[in-house]
Write a structure and sequence with these properties.
Organism: Falsiruegeria litorea R37
Distance between the termini: 34 Å
Function: Hydrolyzes RNA 2',3'-cyclic phosphodiester to an RNA 2'-phosphomonoester.
Shape: globular
GO molecular function: 2',3'-cyclic-nucleotide 3'-phosphodiesterase activity; ligase activity; RNA 2',3'-cyclic 3'-phosphodiesterase activity
CATH superfamily: Cyclic phosphodiesterase
Strand content: 35-45%
Protein name: RNA 2',3'-cyclic phosphodiesterase
CATH architecture: Alpha-Beta Complex
Order of helices and strands: EHEEHEEHEHEEE
Number of domains: 1
Radius of gyration: 16 Å
CATH topology: Cyclic Phosphodiesterase, Chain: A
Enzyme class: hydrolase
Helix content: 25-40%
C-alpha cells in the first residue's frame, strides 16, 4: 500500500493556500482537500508492516505545537517540478519527524535519506511551466500564515489516478497538549 504520514491542515489554512494557488499561473494545482504537510513518505508497504507501524506510532506522545507557513519555494532547480508554501521549522516539528523516523526503523521500513524540508505542495509543474514560477515566487515572497495548533498527525494511503492522487486517512495519532 502506497502511504505517507502527514499533518492535515485546517479548512481555514486550506482556504488561504487555495487563494495563494490562484496567483500561480502554471502547473497542475493540488486539490484543496489534498493540501497537507508530509512528515514521511513511506512508499509501498505491506499491510502487516503498516499495522506494526501503527502500533509503534500509537505509543508516541510528542508535544503539540504551533505551525507557521512563511514564504514560497520550488523543488527541482533550473527545471522546477513543484511549487510549495514553506513551513517554518521548529524544534517540535523536527522532534516529531525524528520520532517517526525511529518508529519506521523499528518496524523495518527503510526511508529515503534526504533532509527534512517541511512544506505544503501547491502545484506540480511540467517543464514548460518554469517561466511562470519566477513571478509567483517573487510576488509571494512575503507570504505568511499562522496555521494553528498541530494536535495530531495521520497515516494516509495514496491512490494514484490520472486526474490526481486520492488520499485516505487510515489512522490518526494524538500529540500531547501539556
Amino acid at each position: 500500500m502506497r502511504s505517507f504520514l502527514a499533518i492535515a491542515l485546517s479548512p481555514q489554512t486550506r482556504s488561504v493556500l487555495t487563494g495563494l494557488q490562484r496567483n500561480l499561473r502554471a502547473g497542475r494545482l493540488v486539490d484543496p482537500d489534498n493540501l497537507h504537510v508530509t512528515l514521511t513518505f513511506l512508499d509501498d508497504q505491506p499491510e502487516e508492516t503498516l499495522e506494526a507501524l501503527h502500533e509503534e506510532l500509537s505509543l508516541l506522545k510528542p508535544p503539540a505545537f504551533e505551525l507557521y507557513l512563511r514564504g514560497v519555494g520550488c523543488f527541482g532547480g533550473q527545471t522546477p517540478r513543484t511549487v510549495h508554501a514553506e513551513v517554518e521549522p521548529s524544534d517540535a516539528l523536527t522532534a516529531l519527524h525524528r520520532a517517526i523516523a525511529k518508529a519506521t526503523r523499528r518496524v523495518g521500513i527503510v526511508l529515503q535519506r534526504r533532509k527534512f524540508h517541511p512544506h505544503v505542495t501547491l502545484a506540480r509543474l511540467r517543464p514548460h511551466d518554469a517561466s511562470a514560477v519566477g513571478p509567483f515566487l517573487s510576488g509571494e515572497a512575503g507570504f505568511s500564515h499562522e496555521a494553528g495548533l498541530v494536535a495530531r498527525f495521520g497515516l494516509y494511503e495514496s491512490i494514484l489516478r490520472p486526474e490526481g492522487p486520492t488520499y485516505h486517512l487510515l489512522a490518526e495519532y494524538e500529540l500531547s497538549e501539556t
